[in-house]
Every structure is written in structure tokens, then in C-alpha cells.
Write a structure and sequence with these properties.
15 strands; 2 helices; mainly beta; globular; 12-stranded antiparallel β-barrel; two-stranded antiparallel sheet
Amino acid sequence: MLACAFVMCTAPGYAQIVATNHEEVLDIDSLRRDFDNQSYFGLYKDNYFVFGPPIGQKPTKSNTNVKFQISIAQKLTRSTLPWGTYLYLFYTQKVFWNVLENSMPMPDLNFNPGIGLAKPLFVRNRFIGKAFFLIEHESNGKDGEKSRSWNKISFGASILIDPNIIVHGKIWIPIVDGMNNKDILNYSGIYQVGMQVYSNNRRLTGSVLLTKRRGFNLNYNTTIELAYRFLKRDNQYFFLQYYNGYGEGLLDYNVFHSQLRIGIVIKPRLFSEF
């Protein structure tokens, strides 16, 4: 969603990184132009396809499944809006696919469109990440007793505290309009925090995401991911994802899941969104 930084880019229009005294210094003017001139259409969150069994249960055809996510963003403004922001339209779709069952049904499809403002952050002429404001809707497109939906007004930021470490957080004001998921905050959470760590050559990536469920106890949904890039210049990775908690999908948001899946992922250039 943002132009590349902390990664050497040689294509025209990308900001360059200059090494000085073992530190990475960005050409800020070039980077600001980069935000204006970057492609209007691109990746938003990780795009992945993974398959695997539950942990702590006997694997069956119904609980060993494929999970895949498609996530894209469209920049709607060429130049900055007030406060140095850019307007984006985005869409994420997450699908759970029971490929081992007869007819291979997709019992849970989650649709997550939205619109939001992203602001690149600079401190002492250094690019350190971004802040964002989002208006999101999420639903499963079903009717009757299986219908699930809610909305969020979200605020968050992703901060590069080191060329190899990114921390991020997101908190939301929920608007729960689904009649069958009034208690969704008890399971799908009220805020999230996480960290991404990169190897020096950026071939290996690890991340942890914690989503706090409503309540005063330490009740978090946990996602742990490892990714290894196939080729140095590609953004396709071998991918391992472990999920532990509630709210992995909308249909069974109040059912506990502990699942390990492997597959491939295509990541955005700079850092992944969550």
C-alpha cells in the first residue's frame, strides 16, 4: 500500500536508500514523490493459500481445510489530501474451503470492503511508517440464522523501529448490526497489536498478531506466521500460519480454533497489513 522503503529498489520512481555510517537514510523528497506516483492499484493485506489440520483434535474431512485470502487496494487520490493523507478503497475476502469433503463446499466466505486514509510518517527527515483511519464493513453474505455482520471505525499505525522490525496496532469503534452476532466483541476482539521481524536479506519473515477479546483477563486470539521468499527479487513466499483462538471466520466466530496450515503467500512490497 505504501512505496518501498528499507528495501533497495532500482525501478524508476522508487525512493532510493543511501547507506551512511551503517545507517539507512532515505531521500525524503524522492519518497514523497513516490507516494504521489505509485501505482493506483496494488496489494493491501497478504494474499495467501494455505491448507492444514487442527491442533489438539483428530483431523477429519470437515476440520482439515483450505484457507485463502485475497486483498487489494485502490488509491483514489494522486496527491496528498489535508494532513498529508491519501485516500484508498480496499477489499479483502477470506474463504474457508473444505476440499476433502464431497463437492468441496466453501462454508464460510468473509467479505471486508472499506475506505480509509493513510498517512506516511516522517521523523527528522526519516520515513518511519504510516498511520491510518478506516471505515470497514465485514459480513459473510448469508441470510437467516447463518448471517453475520459488523462494522468498524478503525485507527492504527505501523512503525518501523528498526530496518528489520515493525510494530503495529489497531483499535476500532465497533458498530454491530448483525442480529446473530451481538456478542462478537467477546470473540473477535476490540483491538490488536503485533510485530513483524525480517532477516537481514529479507528472505525470511516472522510475525505475531494478538487480538484482544472483550474483558479484563488476558484473552487473546493469536496468529503466528513464518514466510520464506523463494527467490531474492520475488514477493512469493513459502508460508506457515498458526491460528489459536476465536473469530478466525465469521460463521463460527464463537467456536475455538487451533489450526496449523502451510502454503504460499504473496506479500506487499514494504510490510503486511493486518
